[in-house]
Amino acid sequence: MLQQRRLALPEPTFAELFTPKLVTVLREGYGTRQLRADALAGLTVAIVALPLSMAIAIASGATPERGLYTAIVGGFIVSLLGGSRFQIGGPAGAFIVLVAATIDRHGIDGLALATLMAGVMLTAVGFLRLGTYIKYIPHPVIVGFTAGIAVIIFASQIRDLLGLSLATKEPAALLPKLQALAVALPTLTPAAAAVAGLTIALIVGLRRYAPALPNLLVAVVVATSAAAFLGLGVETIGSRFGGVPSSLPVPGLPPVTWAKAMDILPDAIAIALLGGVESLLSAMVADSMSGRRHRSNCELVAQGVANVASALFGGIPVTGTIARTATNVRSGAIGPVAGMLHSAFLLGFMMLAAPLASYIPLAALAGVLAVVAWNMAERHEVVAIVRRRRGETVVLLATLLLTVIRDLTDGIVAGVVLGSFLFMHRMAGLVAVELGQPMPAGDRRDIVDPARSAALSDEVRRDLVVVRLSGPLFFGAATRIAWVLERIGEYPATLILDLSAVPLVDADAAASLHAFLARARRRGAAAWVAGASPPVRAELENEGLFEPEIGFAPSVADARMAARQLARHKHT
Q1: InterPro entries recorded for this chain (predicted)?
Q2: 62 within a domain of the structure (yes/no)
Q3: Containing domain of residue 451, as a range?
Q4: 462 pLDDT band (50/70/90 cuts)?
């Protein structure tokens, strides 16, 4: 008979968890060929990131240069210190709603402080090795809040897409925003709508018929050229913001007071949570495309440091960006040097071409974000979940609707809570209780069904009865276990509780088992626990189940043999 051995895997060392992937790549050998591949990938990603970073910053209620600062400073640090070979950091569309709400409540200085605080939180989460837990957010929640963010992003771009003029400040909440935009429809600017339509058509057409070209940049350049040469008179970056600086600002701390920090704390927590989730999702996408494996806690530390640095340089929140990271992998990147060069190329573009950015129509950038929102919606994922199960559909819709109507934090919290209850309900359904008695013709075993519980007392009038439990015994199943066990009625001389098919027991379930076995002993039954794994036995002992009051045996057969020997010993 083969003897099974459980091999305990050694805990990873600090160096294994937190060594940046840049160090790993350099150790593997890095030469001219690798640098050439990373330079080409970095340039490709920079071309994509240039219009997108400005568009996201404008949609967030900030100025366009803040998006560039974020991609340059934050993106460089994410690649320098991160736990993924291919992660590209920068401003992300997922943050638009959150950043806009934070600026609306606390101003740009408040956003800088919230970003700095979120960076400190992410760094702490990484060093505390909590990155694994962020990935436990249910998939329907991720799809739901991503789709909700896509809806809000598109709604936020309607004004610039159509060139509308609002008499008052555009409301932040979705329903009042749509009402205000509907009232302003008579002010539609045909030229702005034409520029936006041209931009969207070029992005979609180039993506389909010329995928090798940087469709975002080409579309913005063509739309800008058309607006300038035709004299369309549409609103531009220069007319609204006064242009883009050609250098990075001097770093500095935002104003900090204890009262302001406490006021901003909820926003900082939301930024940290979303940043952690988004960055790890992006790293997982890169892993699936490349066959590599990222270091989640190292990645969170890098994201934290990058957010602190971005705040110091006047940027907005940084996270891993799925689309730009995927572009990096598809462009043949070898390692993090590609991400670092992407930031360097962006800095070069800003220093050399900043005056030209003033001519970019806001309608063109709105068209870019309209396409981003369409891609973010993940329509195929929504349809797949709705078709699959009602439970996941409820979680998805609750997350989506609360994200759209209330805010992102409420949507995620509600989705996680509903998803957790759904998971516990399904886990509790895996728990089964079976009853068996040894008889001359062989063991008889019947599954205990609540509908048959009244007949249990007639089933157990034997000298020795085995009650077999299977499945995870946790608080969600504790009440059901206790309800079934209480209906056993007349107890036998010997009761064996078979836990060989129980992978885990929590305190509530252990307390239910303790109460059942204590009641059996009070009624004169000798109680045994068979097949309990060491963790399960440890939990039972924590609830007061010790030998010799309760016997423990490796298997049901061993428990039967020990019970019979004990019975013979008593008779002699």
Answers
A1: SLC26A/SulP_dom, SLC26A/SulP_fam, STAS_dom, STAS_dom_sf
A2: yes
A3: 430-571
A4: low
